[in-house]
Amino acid sequence: MNVIDQRIHQVLDGELAAEAVPAELRRAVAQLAAAADLLAAPPAGAVTSLESRVMAELRRPAPSRARRVMRWLVTPHAIILRVRPAWSVAFAAVVAAFTLFTAGQEGPEPAEHEGIAQFVGRFPEAQSVHAVGTFNDWRAGSIALEDQDHDGVWRATVLLPTGTYEYMFVVDGERWVPDHLAERLVADDFGRENSIVIVRPDRR
Amino acid sequence: MDVRGAPPDAEVVALVLAGDTEAFGFVIRRYEAGLLRFAARMLGSRDAAADAVAESFVRAYRHLASCREPARLRTWLYRIVTNRCKSHLARRSVADVSLDDAPPVADPADTEADLERADQLVLVERALADLSPDKREAFVLKHVEGLSYEEMAAVTGERIPTLKMRVHRAREELLKVLEDHA
Amino acid sequence: MKRWVVLGCAAFLAVPLAAQSVRGRLSGRIPSEAIPAVDSLIQFASQEGLPTEPLIQKALEGGAKHVTGPRIVAAVQVSLGQVRGARDLLVHAGDPPPVLPAEITTVAWALRRGLPASLVERVVAALARPPRAAALHAVADLVAHRFDADSAAGLIIEAVHDGVPQERLLDVSTAVLQQVQRGHTRAEALAIVRRDLPNLPAVSKPTRGTVAGARRPASPAQP
Q1: Does C109 reach chain A within 8 Å, measured CB to CB?
Q2: Nearest Cβ partner of C64 from A132, A187, A201?
Q3: CB contacts < 8 Å between A and C, how many?
Q4: How far apart are CA C7 and CA C28, in angstroms?
Q5: How many angstroms away from the CA of C141 is the closest CA of chain B?
Q6: Which of A169, A170, C24, C84 is the most interior residue, by most CB within 10 Å?
Q7: Closest Cα partner for A47 from C199, C89, B80, B50?
Q8: CA torsion angle for A7, A9, A14, A20 (degrees, to 10)?
Q9: Residues 57-76 of A with CB under 8 A from C
Q10: Considering only residues 63 to 92 of chain B, which have any Cβ-Cβ distance to chain A shorter than 8 Å?
Q11: How many Å apart are CA C64 and CA B12, to the nearest integer?
Q12: Burial label, C28 (beta-carbon count in 10 A; 0-12, 13-18, 19+)
């Protein structure tokens, strides 16, 4: 446990006066307060007000009944089912049998030294998103992400030889964006950061 | 942007519920800066934050009648934004930290103090992003948005001791990072 | 005798042919005035038995990102320095020359990801048998999440010695990070995972549907 002196918490929670604690604790209090101030400061660059965007949405006439039904049909909903275990086992068996019989009829079979790489990014306004990196000699076009349900989330699942790759997303053919979901980032020596994907062997 | 002289929240809510859609503009102008800052800190992206807050305002407008205490509109709005951020994080679609969100490239006119401040901000933002969502939420509500523990409880639906513990743990983790880099 | 002559001719021809193919890959992809300098850096690497692919990729990346020729050359020079440094580290750690190019690339990755050279050397020396890619990435993952570097390396080395297979070493770092997400401190998380070694939590594999939906990129990929 990385526990700090409780008096630091008491000062920050307003339960104890700062003057009542030793200087080294006051320094910790000041460090945390300064961090909070930095986070609270307005961000650099202009911030566009949301008012016109939100008000335009609110002023739009209410959708027709048919449109509301359509929207309900295409929106994800959480459904709670209460099923007797016997029925769910039977259902699972049917699904499993169906899957086994139909498996292998679509998609390429991963080879021994191949694995699956999944690329996901949220780009609500994008017209196109590509994964570009050492897996395709940094050429756009070979791995296009898709947003089939138009929710702004773009995805691609590809088979690649196992190994470590650097890449970025190219949005609308011109904007280079790192994939922060990748969690592994490395300086690209051109002033930006590439994401890293490690493809591990994965056989069907 | 100036909202001084605007009617209090309870009156604005009454106006909107009476059919004056335009009065909702007061609500947006009054709270968007804080909500945007909160969502950006939670999601790590200004674009995603703008989407989350805009969706929250639309939702708030549509469900305004269910705001039982119009005088506490602020906490109610934070609750909606909190939920939007959580579902956003649960979908793990926070990969949209675009280059627009990256720290600005140093300007030759920046003073040394500006650069140091920018470096420190990057450090603090990374440390914040490393916290679990619960702890991040608690720290930001408490220290960035300045909510009381009672207000935080109303926003998150958690008990005050739980929130206090989360804030304490967040402070400890952040302080460790700050001291390591001091 | 005849066979040696053929082999000699092949070796004699191999270097110029490789040079041609490198120029072919770079042609039209980076500013033409940068090609001679980049090409000669790649030839240096090739003559020293160093992997050339990282250098070629760096040049292609610069071209794709519309970086100027001089900056591309500078970045390729940095890459050459990195693979040389990685080779020297491996030799120093006890790998007999000629060092495997794949291991050089692996160590160059680890250094680029910010691991201190002394730590990389410690991991390499402790894991005598290549490949060490998974081990070094696992350590780098933990260090990137601000774990103490020595403790992170210690855990991964211990995992290898306890019989955790190569392909599961990244699951060790993932397991540690999961413990932190559950609210444990970093030290506690390391201790919990170490205690359970060589057992690791099951990893979620891609579903059959995901695998079926996977496709190969339009152009061939090389690691």
Answers
A1: yes
A2: A132
A3: 124
A4: 33
A5: 13
A6: A169
A7: B50
A8: 20
A9: none
A10: 91-92
A11: 53
A12: exposed
Tokens of C206: 């891609």
Of B69, B170, B71, B167, whose CA–CA distance to B124 is shortest?
A: B170
Give the nearest partner residue to C223 out of A132, A162, A176, using CB atoms. A162
Q: Which residues of C touch B180 (CB under 8 A)?
A: 146
Residue in chain C lying closest to B130 (CA): C145
| B84 Cβ contact partners less than 8 Å away, ≥ 6 residues apart | B39, B52, B53, B55, B56, B59
Tokens read off for A57: 């949405």
d(CA C144, CA A183): 9
What sign results for the dihedral spanned by CA atoms C213, C218, C222, C223?
negative
pLDDT for C27-86, tens place per residue?
Answer: 999 999 999 999 999 999 999 999 999 999 999 999 999 999 999 999 999 999 999 999
In this structure, is the dihedral angle defined by the CA atoms of residues B129, B131, B132 and B134, taken in order, positive or negative?
negative
Taking only the tens place, the pLDDT of each residue in C109-151 is: 999 999 999 999 999 999 988 889 999 999 999 998 889 999 9
Sequence length of chain A is 204
CA nearest to C144 within chain B: B130
Neighboring chain B residues of A195 at a CB cutoff of 8 Å: none
Separation of alpha carbons C54 and A194, rounded Å: 14
What are the angstrom distances between the C-alpha of B84 and each of B34, B39, B137?
Answer: 15, 9, 12
Residues of chain A found within 8 Å of residue B94, distances taken between Cβ atoms: 122, 180-181
- Residue A182: DSSP 8-state: G
Subunit contact A160:C217, Cβ cutoff 8 A:
yes
Full-model pTM: 0.53
Rounded Cα distance, A185 and A169, in Å: 13
Residue A138, Ramachandran bin (φ over 0: left; ψ between -120 and 50: alpha; else beta): left
- pLDDT: which is higher, C117 or B117: C117
> Token match 């401190």: residue?
C185
Place of tokens 């939670």: B42
Q: How far apart are CA A151 and CA A131, in angstroms?
A: 19
